[in-house]
Known about the structure:
The structure is a single chain. The protein is an alpha+beta fold. It has 14 helices and 36 strands. It has three domains: 2-62 and 74-321, Distorted Sandwich (Beta-galactosidase, Chain A, domain 5); 325-547, Aldolase class I (TIM Barrel, Alpha-Beta Barrel), CATH 3.20.20.70; 643-730, Immunoglobulin-like. It starts with a helix and ends with a strand. The structure holds (2R,3S,4R,5S)-2-(hydroxymethyl)piperidine-3,4,5-triol. Residues 338, 368-369, 378, 413, 480, 482, 528, 530-531, 547, 550 line the site of (2R,3S,4R,5S)-2-(hydroxymethyl)piperidine-3,4,5-triol.
Amino acid sequence: MVGFLREVALVIEFDPEHSTFHLKGNSSSYLLALSPSRDPQLLHWGAALGDGDVVQLARLWRTKAGDPLLEKLRRDYASFGNNDLRSPALHLEHPDGSRISAFTYLEHEITAGKSVPHGLPGTLVEPGDKAATLRLRLVDGLRAQQLDLYYTLYPEMDILVRRAVIKQMKGTGCIQKIMSASVDFPVAARPYWSVSLPGDWARERMVQKAELKQGLVRAEGRRGSQFHDMSPFLAVSQGPPAEDSGPVWSFALVYSGNWLIEAETHPSGRLRINAGINDFDFKWRLDEGESFDAPECVLAFASGGLGAMSRNLHDFVRGRVCRGPWRDRDRPVLLNSWEGLHFGFKHEDIVALAAEGKALGAELLVLDDGWFGKRDDDRTSLGDWVEDVRKLPQGIRGLSRDIHALGLKFGLWFEPESVSPDSELFRKHPGWGLTLAGRPGSTHRTQHVLDMSRAEVRDHLFERLSHTIEDAGLDYIKWDMNRPLWELGSDAWPAGRQSELSHRFILGTYELMGRLRDRYPEVLVEGCAGGGGRFDLGMLCYQPQFWASDNTDALDRVLIQWGGSLFLPAVSVGAHISGIPNQLTGRSTPMRLRALVAMSANLGIELDPSTLSRQDKNELATALARYKEIRRLVRLGDLYRLEDPFAGPRSAWSIVAKDKSEAVVFVVQPLASLPGLDPRPLRLAGLDPAADYRISDLDQTWSGAALMAGCLLPDLGKGDYAGAMVRLIRR
Ligand code: DGJ
């Protein structure tokens, strides 16, 4: 017991003399202190501090900490209603209607492990983790609310998970804004820059780097369930961010509802980042005794640039965000019916597709949209999760039997949260749509959204999905969501609670997903939202992989997967080889290129193999076999982004085994080089400099040092749309 307590104290150290809390990561420190007025303030978040540094910093800080102008201070979680008018972390309305809050420290607790927010997904602590949690309890001056701030440090990964819980102690109050984490950065030698991931449908997660100038920048999601236009992630650097050097701080929300990460640069040059539920169209009533839990936010610090930050985040996301038996397994190579057959198929077509896929090396057949109700196009039947016997006369059970007989796993597509106005479900339960009586709302893709805040809706969906999972013996589900939340209203909630709906929608969705995950842990669930529209850490708690985009063009996918890799590990990304010309872009890239782009994530196939030439079929079969040799490395290895596709004529990335015993390198060059130019060598990273690596494809052996100095000349052949995959094995 004593040893255990000592270990926790080694991770989070409270110094009563200086009122500091030192959260000690292996290579980072987060240092908090209580001001004379008991306001938690941030002294440092960055490189690891020694004990002497901490005392020195605390002494220096104390000379300024009592400044009555709060706006000058680095506050760790600022509430609204005082002389700090930067964007607050907390904005409350009190029982008397006032919005003035003054939270001060009451007590704290340091414990091993962590808790998770009520009703929301939370990150895991695994046996052997040294994770420890600091809980600071604050109370408002009028003692109407109590605020708990949680800081869980995973020291081995330099990851800090923060969240907040507010409890109404007296009367009825209202939350106008509650953030999960707030960080005040000091004035730096160079201006702060942000890295965000904006985009749109079919071009998700395009990397955007921008200097943060004076004022407020909001990265946010307002669409309630689809965030193609921005991912809930933001990184910050001092000066333009570099891939392999310099300090980087990042924020990623474990949340899939309306979210906000705002960056406010004060006239002084200080920077505040707030991350949490979006205050846009949000208001939450709190009656006496009620609590509200904000979602978790994952904070990462790395001193080695964006690359080091991503590698820390990848370790964390694949091991402490994703969960269940599939977390630690190689993912099956799947063949999805969508781009090959769309809505037009019959039982025998799917069996034939599966047989072709099996011959090529596929391991799982996924029947996408169109198997239920009377769905011959996207205008009908969502909600009627019963097989269409016109197409599947032997039922899903019969189809599943035939697919399994081929030695393949079998999966189905669902879009549980949506409903077509033209469906049996909607005719029977018109009130189950997320709309108010008298305000029918607009449709998108001819569909409405179900009111996931209603328990009876979730119970119905649980029963329907359970029935199909058990009846057909499903191994896999693709969980799609194709409509943003608009015109939010629900007759299930009173007038004063309508602005709670976007959050209640995602709470309900999480509840349903959690129930299904716990009942059917062996079913692999792949998330999707019109492509990668809500590919975030919240979803990854229920769905260990996600369809990254409806854009399967290999060149565009390099950009989309590159952007996602800032915070999402390769094993969470669905990447398929599709047919040519590409259905969205019309571009015809060679099989070799399409295959290698898919091989650097969870490879799947999304075409009808019977339409392929013999040569393409052979190449595809070879690619699948090669992928199976490297997929464990892709799942567990460290990603090094080598040449940026957003910046140059060529892009390259590698995945290196943790023990540096092997690596795989991917190179993509969209356009042929100008004649007469010497081929450009590639500088690798992350290898053991002293080891020799054999490059079987090139029949060469080089030392890690030479490869990292730029000795590798990948063979890209001639022509446009060139690509190469090179394997390195330590001798
Ligand atoms: C959108 C998804 O992103 C596609 O992959 C496909 O499943 C369609 N929905 C089906 O309607």
